Amino acid sequence: MSKTFNKVNAIRGMNDILPNESYKWEQLEATIKSLLSQYGYQNIRTPILEQTRLFARGIGEVTDIVEKEMYTFTMNKDADKVDPEDMLTMRPEFTAGVVRAAIQHNLLYERPVRAYAMGQVFRHERPQKGRYRQFHQLSVEAMGFDGPDMDVEIILLLARLWRALGLNNIRLELNCLGQSDERAEHREALIAYLEQHIDSLDEDAKRRMYSNPLRVLDTKNPDMQEMADNAPKLFDYLGEASKAHFDAVCERLEQAGIGYIINPRLVRGLDYYNLTVFEWVTDDLGAQGTVCGGGRYDGLFELLGGKPTPCVGFGLGLERLLELADAQGAFTPLQETDVYFVHQGEEASKKAALLAEQCRDAGWKVMVHAGSAGFKSQFKRADLSGARWAIVIGEKEVEQGIVAVKPLRESENGSIENQFEAAQADLIQILAERK
Ligand code: ATP
Ligand code: MG
């Protein structure tokens, strides 16, 4: 009796990135890394798992992420003994962890720090196009900078990234959230307004109208748009300093030739923002059109037990960015193989393996046909590999110390060179001449 086993599949909302797609990821990451280094950013890598309370405090209790999207668990099996430090969460974003690390290692001791993190983050949302449970973010954090100049610099960095990837249908939306005392005043007016419009609020909004009324304005519910549009605007409650900061951001953007739209309802989904907030949005991705969101988070260091440290940064969804860039033809499939060795017989197989190593010493990408098969099917594989040449070794070639070189691709004049013979000792030279 033979036993049968069930297949095991990946978790819903968590995608495999297969070899025929991964080259796009590698190219996107390379473009991003080289651009970040132009702006002086260094990589930081923090753990995927952090204490739950880091995110609860850092992101805010009354946010989508903390209320319903975090993967949280404990390894402590004794329910009575679970204390808050035992609760662990898979990072739903990077900023809280990066700031935690900066405080823990006193990273800003000597000077401000420009750091970026890139990798997987986890949110338990309903999977759909552009929305997954494991996805990738680039998170850029300029820590220890207070001026509007840095707000604009990171926006320019993003504009440069769009240019590098050939994106044009992407717009910048901007708002100013002011400071907490300004928000407090606006909050009272907003709650009064929401109370007057209680009948047009959905369940989420009713639940949040006292705990986080600003987030009610962030609603995607079409029935609530008119109500939200007419609500008191935070903008009208800003003091001189906040207004001056925002005006300086706008002026510098205009000088740099970056168009923007002021969106008074843009509040962002995380609690830690103040002053400048922004999103880059496109209509090319359907409902999930926000590619990148960011802004100032001057209060986060203190909230997490550090010294007051003004910061500005953004989080960018790589799946959404990759889809946009791919549609613009930003990626080119890699030439995986230059040379493919085709061989027949034990001696030829050994010779092919040795010559292949010599070709690799010379810098070529080389595949040797593995196992034995007829020449015909080996040539088929050679072709599939994308190689420019098949190097053929059979009994005769072994005896005479030669190889047959079979060019597989058109040369610059559009024709394919005929197959020819060459001494094994000359192979490297012959390939180099055709580089
Ligand atoms: P959304 O309003 O789409 O839920 P968000 O405000 O939750 O976005 P952020 O927390 O600002 O998003 O994350 C930054 C970026 O990460 C988003 O602009 C988006 O590109 C991407 N992103 C967020 N959630 C997901 C997800 N579940 N799957 C794929 N990408 C996502
Ligand atoms: Mg979200």
Automatic annotation (TrEMBL):
CDD domains of this UniProt entry?
HisRS-like_core (cd00773), HisRS_anticodon (cd00859)
Q: What is its EC number?
A: 6.1.1.21
Reactions that this protein is recorded to catalyse: tRNA(His) + L-histidine + ATP = L-histidyl-tRNA(His) + AMP + diphosphate + H(+)
**SUPFAM superfamilies listed in its UniProt record:** Class II aaRS ABD-related (SSF52954), Class II aaRS and biotin synthetases (SSF55681)
The record's subcellular location field reads: Cytoplasm
GO function terms (MF aspect):
ATP binding; histidine-tRNA ligase activity
Q: What is its main location?
A: cytoplasm
Lineage top rank: taxon:
Bacteria
Keywords assigned: Aminoacyl-tRNA synthetase, ATP-binding, Cytoplasm, Ligase, Nucleotide-binding, Protein biosynthesis
Ranges for domain Aminoacyl-transfer RNA synthetases class-II family profile come to 1-333
> According to the UniProt record, what class of enzyme is this?
ligase
Residue sites binding L-histidine per the record? E93, F94, T95, R123, Q137, E141, R268, Y272, Y273
Give yes or no: UniProt keyword Iron-sulfur: no
What Pfam families does the annotation carry? Answer: HGTP_anticodon, tRNA-synt_His
UniProt-listed GO biological process terms: histidyl-tRNA aminoacylation
CC terms in the record's Gene Ontology section: cytoplasm
Family classification: Belongs to the class-II aminoacyl-tRNA synthetase family.
Output the HAMAP family linked to this UniProt entry. Answer: His_tRNA_synth
Quaternary structure?
Homodimer.
NCBIfam families listed in its UniProt record: hisS
Q: Specify the protein name.
A: Histidine--tRNA ligase
Organism listed in the record:
Oligella ureolytica
